Amino acid sequence: MSLVDTEALILRTYNLAEADKIVVCLTKHSGLIRGVAKGCRKLRNRFGASLEPFTHVYLTYYERENRELVSIRQTEILKSNFNLSSDPSIVTALAYLGDLLIEFSPPHQANELLFRMSTACFDAVSQTPEDLQSILRYFEVWLLKIEGFLPDLRACANCHRTFAEETIYLGHDLSLRCAQCSNSRGSAVSKHLHSQLRATEKLPQPKFAHEVREASSETKKQIAELTFQMIGRVLERMPRIRPNV
Ligand SMILES: [Zn+2]
Fold it and tell me: 226: left (phi > 0), else alpha (psi -120 to 50), else beta?
């Protein structure tokens, strides 16, 4: 049995028995974990509001070899995102981010980059909720990239020619090809859309948010449609939750 201290983002909770909860969270130390918080639904309990979804906490838990469920011992709130729970569109969007993290992260595999990107996006929603749409797009593109599903945005997957300012095509295998190699089949990615995708790879999130603010509402819708399609193909089904665009 070993004791682990780590930062974590609470993603989802389920009631268990009379007074307990199962807590699903993304940790910095060991990726996605599921843990039991004993007694956390009693009126007076040591966890307080720290196990509310989307809270960034410092977590202490026990793990045993060959047991998937860990035992949560202690929590300390680093950042409560409770201020966001009054806006239903934000709650839906955060639940969507949480779901994607649960779907994409293999349990007990540390991925510090994913953890940092996720906490940065949750913080950004809390600080600039008006940028929600651009934060969602940023999160989706980076999640695909970190998990190795984002196609090469620079060159055609077939002839390896560097893309110029041109319409390119996303195939069913999640690769991007030039018009010639794809026979213009697949989902068309316009040059505006392509440059927005490139920007997500290059820019830190606040600068990307600024760039998306300048984009036309048509381009914004197209990015949302494209990232949603890519995620659907990776999962082989559409995500359970779809935030408003
Ligand atoms: Zn080509």
Answer: alpha
CA of 23 to the centre of ligand 1 (A): 47
What pLDDT score does 71 carry?
A: 96
Q: CA–CA distance from 166 to each of 163, 184, 200 (Å)?
A: 7, 12, 18
Residue 58 CA to ligand 1 centre (angstroms):
48
From residue 224, give the alpha-carbon distance in Å to each of 10, 27, 109, 140, 212.
25, 27, 28, 9, 12
Question: How many whole angstroms from 97 Cα to the centroid of ligand 1?
Answer: 34
Structure confidence at residue 75 (pLDDT): 95
Q: What's the gap in Å between 156 CA and the centre of ligand 1? A: 5
Give residue 217's pLDDT. 85
Query: Cα of 155 to ligand 1 centre, how many Å?
Result: 8
Amino acid 202: pLDDT = 87
pLDDT value, residue 38? 92
57 Cβ contact list (under 8 Å, min separation 6): 7, 8, 9, 10, 25, 50, 51, 75, 76, 77, 78
pLDDT in the model for residue 212: 82
| CA 102 / ligand 1 centre spacing (Å) | 35
Cα distances (Å, whole numbers) of residue 245 to 36, 66, 144, 177: 35, 42, 19, 27
Coil vs helix vs strand at 153: coil
Q: Within the chain, which residues score under 70 in pLDDT?
A: none
Residue 163 Cα to ligand 1 middle (Å): 9
